[in-house]
Design brief:
Elements (H helix, E strand, L loop, with lengths): L1 E7 L2 E17 L4 E17 L4 E4 L6 E6 L3 E10 L2 E14 L3 E6 L5 E9 L3 E9 L6 E9 L7 E4 L5 E6 L2 E6 L10 E5 L14 E3 L5 E3 L5 E7 L11 E12 L32 E5 L6 E6 L7 E5 L5 E2 L5 E3 L4 E11 L2 E11 L6 H6 L3 E4 L6 E6 L8 E6 L5 E6 L4 E5 L6 E9 L2 E10 L1
Antiparallel strand pairs: 1-2, 2-3, 4-5, 5-6, 6-7, 8-9, 9-10, 10-11, 12-13, 13-14, 14-15, 16-17, 17-18, 18-19, 20-21, 21-24, 22-23, 22-25, 25-26, 27-28, 28-31, 29-30, 29-32, 32-33
């Protein structure tokens, strides 16, 4: 999309001017990728820049592409099929939506369309919610909130279970319950900007639901970190918001991926379920080790394609049919944990090995252990230490030493990625060690700017 700058009521706005399409093909025999159609003009109008969004058609194959006009209640509705992309119609619905910095997106289940616009400290922010029909591509049930707080710019993002909407506007982060009868009444402040500088303010801007079920939020300044909502499927504070929780290897301003839900299947049994595609469940899951009780593990279901039943096998004789079970393992050992999800169309299973292992006892075995990886390197204030996949440490610690061998930091470790804060230390070369019960399982060097 090409853009223009407009001055409207003394506010400078960015608008879209043209919408183009390109087609990229792959020669499967030669594994070559080439552009077969470049910048074909689809639309020339004054458009709401950055608010293009896509959702899979209810037939499970095609895609709806929705694009709003600038400062308007008009929506261009395109349908993308194997034959190409075509304008199906223009819909006018509800009141005009003021244009500002923000996001537009569909809920992961395709039932809602959200459009967020931050205008100014005076005009405030506008959150606009519609129901969406995946068969016809039409919006309905217009709902809009305007709050004159938070400044200009922000974003909107939705939990994987499609229940919770989060909106951000520079210094504040709110949560809504999209399943509630009165959505606006559920508006809850869940985070205020904590004042962190990196070196500019790490305020809230646009976000994105990631494949691991977490939401990552960028800042509207050039910083080296992302905010994280670790459990967005839960009502806050159980959603667990961590500000500037992910250290990036370089500066990032405003940028965050814009991805639709590629694993949204057909609406089985609907009038437009005409292609014979079925929702066959795909099992996916992740886990978190408890920080105080190392044998206690929280499991999170991330499965796709409408599972109706869940069966967890923890590899120790115990099972669960919950979607988010907690389980305490009996002790040291390696356990194969499997999740099987199923519905009327079929089932899918994913298994992973979880290891609660004692330190190796011989020098030969020690050399085979790759316990952790540190990144980014170099780093500014904090770095992340990622433990070997499947290893759940018991009484394991990270030790950090400066260039003259003095220990400057020590912290307990848990499975997955551990955040290491060294903001009070000077720049230079540091050595990190992973130690479990007196045995060194991993060593590395890392540089602080």
């Amino acid at each position: 999309m090409e853009t223009e700058l407009w001055a409207i009521e003394e506010e400078l706005s960015i608008t879209g001017k043209y919408l183009f399409s390109s087609m990229i093909k792959q020669d499967t025999a030669l594994a070559d990728i080439f552009v077969s159609l470049r910048k074909e003009l689809l639309l020339s109008d004054t458009l709401d820049y950055g608010k293009l969004s896509a959702c899979r058609h209810a037939n499970g194959r095609d895609w709806w592409v929705i694009l709003p006009a600038f400062n308007s209640n008009l929506y261009y509705r395109y349908l993308l099929t194997p034959s190409g992309i075509d304008l199906v119609g223009v819909q006018e619905i509800g009141e005009a939506v003021p244009t500002g910095l923000g996001q537009a997106l569909f809920s992961p289940d395709g039932t809602k369309h959200i459009r967020f616009n931050g205008i100014s400290e005076q005009a405030g922010e506008f959150t606009t919610i519609y129901d969406f029909d995946r068969c016809t591509g039409l919006l309905s049930n217009f709902l809009q909130f305007n709050y004159p707080i938070g400044g200009s710019g922000g974003g909107a993002f939705i939990s994987k279970n499609a229940r919770y909407l989060y909106t951000s506007s520079t210094t504040t982060l709110y949560q809504y319950d999209l399943w509630a009868e009165d959505i606006e009444a559920t508006r809850t402040l869940v985070a205020d900007y904590d004042g962190h500088l990196d070196p500019l303010p790490t305020t809230f801007f646009q976000g994105q639901l990631a494949p691991d079920g977490k939401i990552y939020i960028a800042s509207n300044n050039g910083v080296t970190s992302l905010h994280v909502i670790h459990n967005p499927d839960a009502d806050c504070p159980d959603c667990r918001i961590e500000q500037h929780g992910i250290e990036l290897p370089t500066f990032n301003a405003f940028s965050i991926p814009n991805q639709p839900n590629y694993r949204l299947g057909p609406i089985d049994g609907s009038p437009c379920d005409t292609l014979g595609i079925d929702n066959i469940p795909l099992a996916r899951w992740r886990y978190e080790q408890d920080t105080l009780e190392p044998f206690l593990v929280q499991f999170y279901d991330l499965s796709d394609y409408e599972p109706a039943e869940w069966l967890w096998d923890f590899g120790d004789g115990s099972t669960s049919t919950d979607t988010l079970p907690q389980h305490t393992f009996p002790g040291y050992g390696t356990y194969e944990v499997c999740l099987t999800v199923s519905n009327a169309n079929g089932s899918g299973t994913q298994c992973k090995e979880l290891e609660f292992t004692m330190p190796n006892s011989t020098a030969e075995e020690k050399q085979e252990v790759v316990a952790a990886t540190a990144f980014p390197n170099p780093f500014r204030e904090r770095f992340s230490l990622s433990l070997r996949p499947g290893w759940l440490p018991v009484d394991a610690w990270l030790e950090v030493y400066d260039a003259v061998g003095r220990q400057v930091h020590r912290q307990p470790l848990r499975a997955g990625v551990n955040s290491v804060e060294l903001s009070g230390q000077p720049g230079g070369v540091y050595v990190w060690r992973v130690v479990q019960k007196g045995q060194v399982l991993g060593v590395g060097k890392i540089v602080k700017w």
